[in-house]
Fold this sequence. Notes:
Radius of gyration: 17 Å
Mean pLDDT: 93
Low-confidence stretches: none
Amino acid sequence: MNDAKFDDYQKESQRTARVGMDFNTRLAVAALGLAGEAGEAADCVKKHLGQGHELDTLRILGEMGDVLWYLAELATILDADLSAVARLNQAKLAIRYRDTFTVNESINRQT
């Protein structure tokens, strides 16, 4: 996804954000929402692997969308663009794994 699409999504997501809360409350709701939605996606995988459920791909994708929404909300609260978050992550991974993921670099990483 190019920067403009990430940032357009982030701006559009604000249409459904509750913006009247004080900073700390909004920050907490966004961070807890992000964790909660990620947990729901993980729960689908747990049920598949540990309890014999069919893998519910559509539900996982839906939860991933909720994760993305809360990520966009958290970035907005912190006055950052999603594209900047993505670039920061790419830079961190480029340092951590020079060419590609390796177990050795993962175990002995400096960052």
